Amino acid sequence: MTNLTTKQLEYPISQDGAGSGDARDVHELRKQVDEILQKTPVFDLHTHLFAPEFGELNLWGIDELLNYHYLIAEMFRFSSITPSEFWALEKTKQSDLIWQTLFVENTPLSEATRGVVSVLNTFGLDTRAKDLRESREFFAAQNPADFIERVLKIANVTDIGMTNDPLDEAEIKVWKSGAKIDSRFHAALRLDRILNGWTDAVPLLQKQNYEVSANLDATTIGETRRFLDDWIQLMNPLYLGVSLPDDFAYPEESIRGKLIKEVVLPTCKEHGISLSLMIGVRRRVNPALKLAGDGLGRTDVSVVARICEENPDVKFLVTFLSRENQHELCVVARKFANLMPFGCWWFLNNASIVAEITRERFELLGTSFIPQHSDARIFDQLIYKWNHSRQLIADALFKSYKGLLEDGRIVTGKEIECDAAKLFSGNFRSWVAK
Length: 434
Ligand code: FIX
Ligand code: ZN
Fold this sequence. Notes:
By secondary structure, the protein is an alpha/beta fold. The chain has two domains: 8-56 and 151-432, Alpha-Beta Barrel (TIM Barrel), CATH 3.20.20; 62-140, uronate isomerase, domain 2, chain A (Orthogonal Bundle). It is 51% helix and 8% strand. The strands form three sheets. A five-stranded parallel β-sheet has the order 4-5-6-9-10. The longest helix has 26 residues, at 381-406. Mean pLDDT is 95; it is low at 1-14. It binds D-fructuronic acid (FIX) and zinc ion (ZN). Zinc ion is lined by residues 46, 48, 375.
């Protein structure tokens, strides 16, 4: 391939559609892509954040930031503390230890440690501090409502998808209280406990007055559907969602397989609601690490092809945790318009991998995918997660536009704005009709 110089890459002025605000060379194009992607608001479709009405479920501040399970896992690589000793500490002692281990005694190079540095830096706090005194004082002085506004503004996030478990006592209280939930926070009805732990879920459904039993008889199927209908009405969720192991199969002769087929898919169809499949997690690979002990595995992507083919009336949002599954996911998405790939989930949310996956998706799917979600658990994380993602998506998009230019077509400022809007919110909004 010829190595085009910047000079040769100037836009042909005569190309129609190009206006005075459109970039004329690759440097201008790069600047324009960066500027537009910075100012385009995000609809973050999957987080573990909560609206203010959920009170203490809504996490923020330095001690929460440091106790993020990504950092806990990393701390154990450097510290000689045992998991049982660590879990016996108070939260502030845990965060002191994580700070000391990952930020004082070692250089914070990982994505998760850099995230904390980035948040501290955004608030003008010392990123090389010897202890947490200054940052604790800063966060203690914040008014929670103002802090949320400030973070949303910095991250340029307008809408947040929560993760809502209809079997969680604390959440149930809020949903049933009739409290008006901040309209920027949207529910996502999570099915993990039902689909991945039916026997434990049964008494919890019974407690909510649904006549279910461990064996999936006709009454149980009907009652579980009624349970979902009621919660859909109460939460008005964006989608139903579940995380699934790497050996997930469809169809499957199992409790989960039967529930998916006879309860979940018919419910999605009836309500016109999407099903989000997050596939590839191996829970509790090291149980001593609790939430930090989950791992991943590679999946047979043909499960997604089968579920999409058999259920053309249901729309699926799909993300895989294994890097090795990403290319196949793009190919399946080319075959099924009821499939929307989304996000670079969890262990994939690192610069080198996001760059690769996003490039691959542009090359195979154009703009018909959702490049990222934050998966934030602590409010402040929106700042670094979206800052990093915006830069990486801008890099990938610029490279695609540059290729298009080399092939002889200008990209106008309007087109860039339109593409950015699709990627950051439009594709998801139209998928879920919000
Ligand atoms: O299942 C999920 O939604 C995962 O994102 C979480 O369970 C995981 O712990 C996480 O925080 C990943 O970012
Ligand atoms: Zn998540």
